[in-house]
Amino acid sequence: MAVAHRPKDPQRREKIIAATLDVIAEHGISGTTHRRIAAAAEVPLGSMTYYFTGLEELLTEAFMLLATTTSARYVEILDAATTRAEAREAMVEIITGDIWETPRTLTLSYELYAFSIKNERVREVIRHWMSQSRVAIGRHFDPMTTYALDAAIEGLTIHRSFQPEITLDMVREIVDRLTRNDAPTASL
Amino acid sequence: MAVAHRPKDPQRREKIIAATLDVIAEHGISGTTHRRIAAAAEVPLGSMTYYFTGLEELLTEAFMLLATTTSARYVEILDAATTRAEAREAMVEIITGDIWETPRTLTLSYELYAFSIKNERVREVIRHWMSQSRVAIGRHFDPMTTYALDAAIEGLTIHRSFQPEITLDMVREIVDRLTRNDAPTASL
DNA sequence: CCGATAGGTGTACGCTTGTACACCTCACGG
DNA sequence: CCGTGAGGTGTACAAGCGTACACCTATCGG
Predict the structure, then answer these.
(1) Which residues of A135-147 are buried (b: 16+ CB within 10 A; e: fewer)?
(2) Which residues in B lie closer than 8 A to residue A30 (C-beta atoms)?
(3) Which of B107, B123, B154 sits opposite A159 (nearest CB)?
(4) pLDDT by residue (tens digit) across B71-110?
(5) Residue B151 to residue A159, Cβ atoms within 8 A
(6) Is domain B56-180 in CATH 3.30.930.10, yes or no?
(7) Which superfamily, per CATH, for A58-180?
């Protein structure tokens, strides 16, 4: 009984998941097919059903990757802040910074929300993302303010992508207003 | 030369557009097909290509209907307010009120945003919706505050749908903070 | 050096899709 | 009462889809 024949490419799965995000970003979920993903990941079509039960599972895993990656970026930016002023500026950076420079992340978010309607597990992923994000914000602000800021990221990001006239200074002013009545917490 | 044979059902087009929104709400754009729309509108398949050039046109028109309808509702609620306090309460109602009671409108919004990535005309529809909405809000608040409130509708609506613990009072508090430094305009 | 077997893939199947268009219906001018 | 043409539809077609699985490949214990 031979054991033999190790996987040639142990990263195959991850490569496919990453490629899935690329395909969604470019074609939307309705244009995302096994064949296109296989082409993007440069793997044979057969690998799709070998590594994943179906398209739905693949999409779900892809969105988990998106949430993890983006969420980690939030945490990174917020944890770098040590003063209240820095924390405010960190919020401004999250809203206006390079995460959303490319339309990619924003596009993927839209598809994520749309997909979440049909998939409870993805809804869970979103809730987890939001909660992670609240933990990071909550290190600097009280709970009430934290909810407000978290929602502000969402709203301002979206609106800025359609209305570029919303300047950096306006975002700063909005963050200021939202944090003005904050009851400072222990913080770090 | 006969003139003859008037359309049996002059509302056909509108009926199809309305049915399209229903199908999108239930199945998402990726599950929206000519056949399903035809079934929902109780119209033969042939009517699809008779009244609309293609699926894309149909989706575009459907989203125009969504924008018009929802936007009109905003205006209605905001125009009913005559004092500053009422205007603030109107904002709270828009964010927490019956527009979003059913997941329908929110679901459709997600699909709208996702679709806008691929369709310039729909992006234009969104910009128009936002601008209408800003006009209505702007009757009560200064421009800067208006942008903030408009974005707050978006962010809070979305976040509340995932985090029901965001209460009405929290929304009120957030609207308060955003409008506190407002430089009152002439208003009505 | 030779099975045996884990790992991986090419191909083919049944189905659904968007779309076009040949055809049908029937109100009306003559 | 008939012929005409505007209005509308059933049907058929090619393309593309998800998915399953028979088959191939290459390693390694013996």
Answers:
(1) ebbbbbbeebbbb
(2) 28-30
(3) B154
(4) 999 999 999 999 999 999 999 999 999 898 899 999 999 9
(5) yes
(6) no
(7) Tetracycline Repressor, domain 2 (1.10.357.10)
